[in-house]
Amino acid sequence: MPEKQNPTGRHSDGSRAYPGEKARQGEIILRKPWMRAVFMAGLVGCALLALGIRIAAGP
């Protein structure tokens, strides 16, 4: 028995409408100092990893 994509039986045109309040991007909330430190360490780690790969790849 094949599964249905729309079990309600209603037909849809496939598009969804979202109000602007729900469609906007989320925000990063770093309330505690350790959260900020972990976030910054991740950013610095990504930069160092990219730099290390660039150096290892050679000229």
Essential attributes:
single chain, 59 residues, mainly alpha, 2 helices, flat, membrane, transmembrane, transmembrane helix
Brief characterization of the structure:
The chain has two helices and no strands. By secondary structure, it is mainly α.
Record the SSE blueprint.
Blueprint: H1 20-23, H2 33-57
How would you describe this structure to a colleague?
This protein is mostly helical and 59 residues long. It contains two helices and no strands. The radius of gyration is 23 Å and the shape is flat. It starts with 19 loop residues before the first helix and ends with a helix.
- Total helix count? 2
Largest sheet: none
* SS elements, strand count: 0
The residue-averaged pLDDT reads 79
Molecular shape: flat
What is the end-to-end distance?
58 Å
Biased composition (Basic and acidic residues): 10-22
Transmembrane segments: 37-57
Keywords: Membrane, Transmembrane, Transmembrane helix
Region (Disordered): 1-22
